[in-house]
Specification:
The structure holds 2 protein chains of 2 kinds. Chain A is mainly alpha-helical. Chain A has a domain at 262-468. Chain A contains 20 helices and 2 strands. Chain A has helices at residues 3-6, 11-29, 33-50, 69-89, 100-119, 123-141, 148-179, 184-193, 197-214, 223-230, 233-257, 263-285, 291-312, 315-346, 357-360, 362-376, 382-396, 400-426, 439-457, 459-467, and strands at residues 58-60, 65-67. By secondary structure, chain B is mainly alpha-helical. Chain B has a domain at 277-491. Chain B has helices at residues 5-21, 28-52, 84-108, 113-132, 136-157, 162-190, 198-201, 208-225, 234-241, 244-269, 271-276, 278-297, 302-323, 326-357, 368-371, 373-386, 393-408, 410-435, 451-469, 472-489; strands at residues 61-69, 74-80. In chain B, strands 1-2 form a two-stranded antiparallel ribbon. Classes of the chains: A mainly alpha, B mainly alpha. The A-B interface holds A 358, 373, 378-380, 384, 388, 391-392, 395-396, 403-404, 407-408, 410-411, 414-415, 418, 421-422, 425-426, 459-460, 463-464, 467 and B 67-72, 115, 140-141, 144-145, 147-148, 151-152, 155-156, 162-163, 166-167, 170-171, 174-175, 178-179, 181-182, 185-186, 188-189.
């Protein structure tokens, strides 16, 4: 489909782009920066309303942009993640009165970039859109430019990200050398008819480096704790969720389109990486004393569980990735929303700030407890459905060792999630009761809390929406 | 209502829990009465279900079925039979009694009634659901729901080492149940067509190796809950640290969830594996009976002694299960019920004494028989019931279990009788140390048992005495189902 014909299927993305520029312009004229944030939210809602599921896969812009149900799901996921992040940033005090107009504008670009990542069907497009997301992430991580931790995080992220991208780019060049094309289907065909097995194996490993960085897969996870700790809390919330989800989207697409018949090569690698990721994440999380670092390691471990679905790669396994990502999005954003609230009230991200939270703010404590239980994968919460799906996929495909390791990991994970719950409920409070959260934060918290419960209690409804 | 009676039994406590949430924190007496009323209503509903229950009929009754997660064929499937109904009845009674026993306890531990009764009622929903679910997925969900409130109930209102005990209980049980989840998934994918429906899964053919592996996975989940010998170390900690009413629930209901799992899932789903593991089960039973007995004998902490006696008594359930015959099954099933009532009562009595003396050190007491004559009477009654005095229910169930195991293995039976002697030793030794001898002047001001406390004990005594004198009042409900189960698993 040529560019002009494609435009009519591209309306939500155009709205996002236009909205981003409009937000930057508004920023010049408005004194009340919060209005820019509210405008950005409006843009997201508008884009959500305009996004329509394609009846059949559409090859937009000469096949650069593949709009199928898979991409459509990630469209919702990206918009949802950005929307919630905007909602919780509205009350985030370190941002106030400085550059927050730009902050909201950048998030609209981010939403646009994320959607292109999910829909990219061309190596060049994949690379450019991933870089787009990465650059925006570096900017957002370093947004509090007077905070040394924030700056350090941004630099670390940039250096680590550049190296990983370069390695991935090298993998792409190998593929181009083999196939003489950058289009995913063409490369897939070329490899199928003239299988250059060692080359393909090398290329897939290079992809794992570049995208493994995005999804914080061990051993490319080193950046995550420092970056998550240093970044502004709303950005951390966003980074643990959206780029990770999109990394999985690209991996799924690339593995599916190019490397499907090299399954025997990369599946064992992913099994090992999955075990490594969840074990490193879980064991390191046990000894953390800063809630953001703690959740960073937990999110590394969660990536390990999602990798199980990728390693299996059956129909159920691919479904499991989407279900898990959705459940994880609700839960992790929720947990970070509470972290943001507590951080705002106590001015601290140390775990000690959570002592006796159940008496200082019963609702926040109950919500965080539910989010943590969901991360631990206990029924009847969203996280359990995700975990159930990956376990089911792995058992169905006879990956018994992998599931046993994952089960043991889940017990370790439960231990450290309960450290926070213990602090909140079993320890006496360290100070007076909290004020109630701002309205936008309260809306986000309740929406995510009810979402986590609803997905756990009525999973059928969500599964139908996600997998069709 | 008649057609959804089981749903009502499960979800009435949840409704009560939400009612508690909407009462202000300071209205403690309102919260207490809502909780008590809720458990009372559940008991009444169970009583009503008892009138609907057809004892002579073996299959599932009062079945409720609705689609829940169509993608996996998961159903909201409830039903009851002679195995689950006695457990539901036990849960209702124990929950009611323990709720009444909670009244002074929560206040002593720093209040927070609202959270306590919310979690307590949530726990009851989980327990009821565990016994009534016939869909493996639903069962797993409800089984796990029990864990979280229990963690908080031990962790917030427990004794000095409560945090350690709570997380230990939680992690042990979670580890077991995760392996059970893997087993459940294995069963699901091995079934053709894929299903979690117990009514369809029973009788499907499965290979022996598959059965053995999945039996082990389920075994881990259930054995940790019972607890069976090498997996029992969480139990003394949890029991000692838990507040009295929660110990009662733990001993009265939660331990039975494990043995219930064997009856409901492991045996009918994996009959060949059940035969294959029969010797191992018998050995574990005997080890549990003797080990639990000896360790109980050595305790100086009253509560820890009762906790270890649980390990010993639950061994008899396992012994009956291992026998794989009619008498053994009847004994095991009956022992589940009677142990719930007897040990529940003993924990209540420990709590009553502790509330007054703030000590559980057996060597510290003495001569309380003269000081608290009514208490002494109750304690003697429950101790005698626990050691298996004929005429009380403990005797019937242990006798049946031994009778069954005698047909299987004379050696195992002979060794198990040592457990009965040990039970007599540690219980009578306890009675001697607490009630007889010279009164320690420290306890001169202890008051005797109060009417409220008597009220918590009487329902249990009625059941103990009733079953002891005429066991058919409960066996008639169990026997048809157990006989059918035996037919299913005969290889």
């Amino acid at each position: 489909m040529n560019a002009v014909e494609s435009l009519k299927y591209f309306v939500p993305e155009l709205v996002l782009l236009g909205g981003a520029f409009a937000a930057f312009t508004l920023d010049f004229f408005l004194k009340q920066k919060k209005l820019v944030g509210e405008f950005a939210l409006l843009v997201i809602v508008l884009a959500l309303c305009l996004a329509q599921a394609p009846a059949k896969p559409l090859h937009l812009f000469f096949g650069m942009f593949e709009l199928d149900t898979f991409a459509h799901f990630f469209r919702y996921l990206a918009l949802g993640a950005v929307g919630v992040t905007l909602l919780i940033s509205l009350g985030y005090s370190p941002l106030k009165d400085r550059y927050d107009g730009e902050f909201y504008g950048l998030f609209l670009f981010m939403a646009f970039a994320l959607i292109t990542v999910a829909a990219a069907n061309h190596l060049l497009m994949i690379f450019i859109s991933i870089e787009f997301v990465s650059l925006l992430s570096y900017l957002l991580v370093g947004f509090l430019k007077n905070d040394p931790k924030s700056k350090e995080a941004a630099i670390k992220y940039l250096l680590f990200g550049s190296v990983c991208s370069a390695v991935m780019l090298y993998g792409m060049s190998l593929l181009y050398g083999v196939a003489g094309s950058l289009e995913l289907p063409a490369i897939g065909n070329a490899l199928f008819y003239a299988p250059f097995k060692p080359l393909a194996a090398a290329a897939v490993l290079f992809f794992f480096v570049g995208l493994g960085f995005k999804i914080s897969m061990a051993p490319f996870h080193m950046w995550a704790p420092d970056v998550y700790e240093g970044a502004p809390t709303p950005v951390t919330a966003f980074l643990t969720v959206a780029p990770k989800a999109l990394g999985f989207a690209v991996l799924t697409r690339v593995l599916d389109m190019i490397f499907l018949h090299f399954y025997g090569v990369w599946s064992p690698v992913l099994v090992v990486l999955s075990i490594l990721t969840m074990t490193i994440g879980n064991i390191t999380a046990v000894s953390q004393s800063n809630i953001k670092r703690f959740l960073a390691y937990s999110s590394i471990a969660q990536a390990g569980y999602i990798l199980m679905g990728l390693a299996v790669f059956t129909l159920l396994g691919r479904g499991a990735i989407l279900i898990y990502l959705f459940a994880y999005l609700l839960t992790n954003l929720g947990a970070f929303a509470v972290v943001l609230f507590v951080g705002g009230e106590t001015g601290s991200d140390s775990l000690d700030a959570y002592a006796g939270l159940s008496q200082r703010s019963p609702a926040a404590a109950a919500m965080l407890a539910v989010f943590l239980l969901s991360l631990a994968g206990l029924p009847p919460l969203a996280g359990f459905i995700g975990k159930y799906y990956v376990f089911a996929a792995a058992i169905q495909a006879n990956f018994i060792m992998l599931t046993v390791v994952a089960a043991i990991n889940s017990v370790i994970a439960a231990y450290y999630y309960f450290r926070i719950i213990r602090l909140m409920y079993l320890t006496p409070p360290a100070g007076p009761a909290f004020a109630s959260p701002s309205r936008s934060l309260a809306i986000a918290l309740w929406a995510l809390f009810l979402g986590v419960l609803a997905m756990g209690i009525f999973p059928g409804f969500f599964i139908t929406r996600i997998l069709g | 209502m008649t057609s959804h009676i089981l749903s009502w039994i499960i979800f009435t406590p949840l409704l009560g829990a939400f009612a508690v949430l909407f009462v202000p924190k300071s209205a403690t007496s309102a919260i207490k009465w809502i909780a008590l009323a809720t458990t009372g209503v559940v008991t009444a509903l169970t009583g009503y279900a008892l009138t609907l229950f057809q004892p002579a009929q073996a299959g599932f009754q009062m079945v409720e079925r609705a689609s829940w997660i169509p993608q996996f064929g998961v159903q909201y499937l409830l039903g009851t039979d002679g195995i689950s109904f006695p457990m539901v009845f036990l849960t209702a009674i124990i929950s009611l009694v323990a709720c009444l026993a909670s009244f002074p306890h929560v206040r002593v531990k720093g209040g927070r009634e609202k959270e306590y009764y919310f979690l307590y009622l949530l726990l009851e929903t989980g327990m009821m659901g565990t016994f009534l679910a016939l869909d493996l997925f639903l069962f797993y969900v409800l089984w796990e729901i029990v864990l979280v409130p229990m963690y908080f109930l031990i962790g917030i209102w427990g004794g000095p080492r409560r945090e350690y005990a709570a997380i230990k209980f939680f992690l042990y049980t979670l580890a077991g149940s995760l392996f059970m989840l893997l087993g459940i998934l294995g069963v699901y994918f091995a079934a053709a067509p894929h299903t979690f429906d117990m009514t369809q899964l029973v009788g499907m053919p499965r290979g022996l190796l598959f059965q053995q592996i999945v039996f082990m996975a389920f075994f881990l989940g259930f054995a940790i809950k019972v607890p069976i010998f090498p997996f029992h170390t969480w139990l003394p900690d949890a029991h000692v640290e838990a507040p009295t009413p929660i110990s009662v629930i733990l001993a009265g209901v939660l331990l039975k969830m494990g043995t219930y799992g064997f009856f409901r899932f492991s045996y009918p789903l994996f009959p060949e594996a059940a035969h294959w593991f029969q010797p191992a089960m018998a050995v574990l039973a005997v080890v549990g009976i003797i080990y639990g007995g000896f360790v109980a004998l050595a305790q100086t902490d009253f509560k820890k002694m009762v906790a270890y006696s649980s390990v010993s008594h639950m061994g008899f359930v396992l012994l009956g299960l291992a026998a794989l015959n009619a008498n053994g099954f009847r004994g095991a099933m009956l022992q589940m019920f009677t142990h719930g009532t007897i040990t529940g009562g003993l924990f209540l009595l420990v709590g009553i004494l502790y509330d007054r003396a703030h000590s559980r050190d057996l060597n510290d007491f003495g001569g309380l028989g003269a000081k608290m004559p009514a208490y002494a009477g109750f304690l003697t009654f429950f101790a005698l019931a626990s050691l298996g005095l004929p005429g009380l229910s403990g005797f019937i169930s242990e006798f049946l279990a031994l009778l069954g195991s005698y047909q299987y293995s004379k050696v195992a039976t002979g060794l198990s009788t040592v457990g009965i002697i040990l039970a007599a030793a540690y219980l009578l030794y306890m009675v001697q140390r607490v009630l007889l001898g010279k009164l320690n002047p420290k306890w001169a001001s202890l008051t005797d048992i109060s009417p409220r406390e008597v009220l918590t004990l009487v329902p249990l005594m009625v059941l103990i005495l009733g079953i002891g004198l005429y066991p058919r009042i409960i066996l008639d409900y169990m026997v048809p189902t157990l006989d059918t189960l035996l037919k299913t698993i005969k290889v």
